[in-house]
Specification:
The protein is mainly alpha-helical and 248 residues long. It has two domains: 95 residues, no CATH class; 137 residues, Up-down Bundle (Butyryl-CoA Dehydrogenase, subunit A, domain 3), CATH 1.20.140. The chain has seven helices and two strands; from the N terminus they run αβααβαααα. The radius of gyration is 37 Å and the shape is elongated. It starts with a helix and ends with a helix.
Length: 248
């Protein structure tokens, strides 16, 4: 049946764009007739004659039941009748279409559950990003006030510490760019979840971009609350990524 492999592979690749599919084909009965049983009579006679010689040599009487000693598998074999499976492909293809229709029904049901869960988790990430943006603004104001106090205190200013604080403020301002890109990615992700067609690879790519921005924010954040939100975001992103592997 190996001739069918190329037909099956093309059919499945045209129908499914992502993932792995194992296909098993089995004949309930032979399409080209029953098995043919082949008996090597000459070989059986040789075994029988050999055992007769052994009987005479050892004064035994076992040659009449030589099949018990030799076994049928030595001179009995079966052969499948051959035929062209390729010319039966149109009929076999109809069976594949029916099987794939059943698969698609289950995929649609599973997909609806995945989409619902994805939307719930992306909303959760959206809320976390909003909290990070709010917290980043508060943290920035605090550090500005700290630097302002250092400069206007009238006492001796530690130049190294002042440079560190100023550099930190610059870093915090950069987070606004990551947050803006992050919010844009989330909107795109949400739009793809609502669209039709194959979106799995696009969603997978967007998740990588979201994860990159979240990692950058986590690296820049010197705030415990923001770090906590970043960890929560990464947890939800990992759950999203696991599910997306099952989406075409």
């Amino acid at each position: 049946m190996s001739v069918l492999e190329s037909y099956i592979r093309k059919y499945m690749q045209d129908r499914y764009l992502r993932g792995k599919v194992d296909v098993f084909v089995k004949e309930k009965q032979s399409l080209f007739g029953d098995l043919e049983i082949l008996i090597d009579v000459d070989l059986a006679k040789k075994y029988q004659n050999m055992l007769k010689k052994l009987d005479r040599a050892l004064n035994l009487k076992a040659s009449d039941e030589f099949l018990h000693y030799v076994g049928l598998d030595h001179f009995v074999s079966t052969k499948e009748k051959e035929g062209d499976y390729g010319r039966l492909w149109e009929q076999i293809e109809r069976l594949f279409a029916r099987a794939c229709d059943h698969v698609d029904i289950m995929r649609t049901k599973e997909g609806a559950h995945i989409r619902q869960d994805q939307q719930k988790r992306i909303r959760m990430i959206e809320r976390l990003v909003a909290q990070i943006r709010k917290r980043a603004s508060v943290a920035l104001d605090r550090h500005r006030e700290r630097v302002r106090n250092m400069v206007s205190s009238g006492g001796q200013v530690d130049e190294t510490r002042l440079e560190t604080e100023v550099a930190y403020i610059g870093g915090r301002q950069d987070i606004a760019e990551e947050l803006t890109r992050l919010e844009s990615h989330i909107k795109q992700y949400d739009a793809l979840l609502k669209s039709n067609g194959a979106v799995g690879r696009k969603l997978d790519f967007l998740l990588q971009e979201v994860n990159r921005e979240v990692n950058t924010i986590g690296a820049k954040a010197a705030d415990a609350t923001i770090s906590k939100h970043v960890v929560e975001c990464k947890t939800e992103l990992e759950r999203l990524r696991e599910q997306i592997q099952n989406v075409e």
